[in-house]
């Protein structure tokens, strides 16, 4: 069978692209840890405030678990509760988050902490905060007129500083 020269180039190019994309997806999934939410944990989004742990949003130090802190977070148009998250550097953190109304995003700018909050579902992410700094948390899913004002802050602080109030 005769295949035209240009046709061959395009076939090669197409096949190479496919392989390149599969490699990128594979590396980011298995090496970079990028996964979609498993969406196994569901919740009645109209009663989020009454359902544990969302009846008590905030940063909680925990004992006897694989992580040091749990950050329970509730998003709603157009804010996050808690407004500010402060965690000592080097801590392993489990984020547990959901939304009370529409889809929101939770992106800690400059890190790989980035997930969607969907009504009726709980999103989780376990990660270690290993760099001191003040990170802006932004909503990256357009959620309405106040979307651009929807942000919060993650403060990763020196462990020694932790008990001081300044
Ligand atoms: Cu938004």
TrEMBL record:
It catalyses: 4 Fe(II)-[cytochrome c] + O2 + 8 H(+)(in) = 4 Fe(III)-[cytochrome c] + 2 H2O + 4 H(+)(out). Coiled coil: none annotated. It is found in: Cell envelope. The keyword Metal-binding applies. GO terms for cellular component: cell envelope; membrane. GO terms for molecular function: copper ion binding; cytochrome-c oxidase activity. Keywords: Copper, Membrane, Metal-binding, Transmembrane, Transmembrane helix. Signal peptide: none annotated. Subunits I and II form the functional core of the enzyme complex. Electrons originating in cytochrome c are transferred via heme a and Cu(A) to the binuclear center formed by heme a3 and Cu(B). This is Cytochrome aa3 subunit 2.
């Amino acid at each position: 069978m005769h295949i035209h020269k240009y046709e061959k180039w395009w076939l090669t190019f197409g096949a190479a692209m496919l392989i390149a994309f599969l490699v990128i997806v594979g590396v980011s999934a298995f090496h970079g840890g990028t996964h979609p939410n498993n969406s196994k944990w569901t919740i009645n989004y109209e009663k989020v405030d009454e359902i544990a742990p969302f009846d008590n949003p905030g940063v909680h130090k925990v004992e006897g678990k694989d992580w040091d802190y749990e950050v329970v977070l509730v998003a709603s148009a157009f804010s996050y509760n808690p407004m500010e998250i402060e965690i000592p550097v080097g801590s392993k953190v489990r984020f547990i988050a959901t939304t009370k109304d529409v889809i929101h995003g939770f992106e800690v700018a400059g890190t790989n902490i980035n997930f969607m909050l969907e009504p009726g579902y709980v999103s989780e992410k376990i990660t270690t905060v290993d760099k001191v700094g003040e990170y802006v948390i932004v909503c990256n899913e357009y959620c309405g007129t106040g979307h651009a004002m929807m942000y919060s802050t993650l403060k990763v602080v020196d462990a020694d500083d932790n008990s001081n109030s300044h």
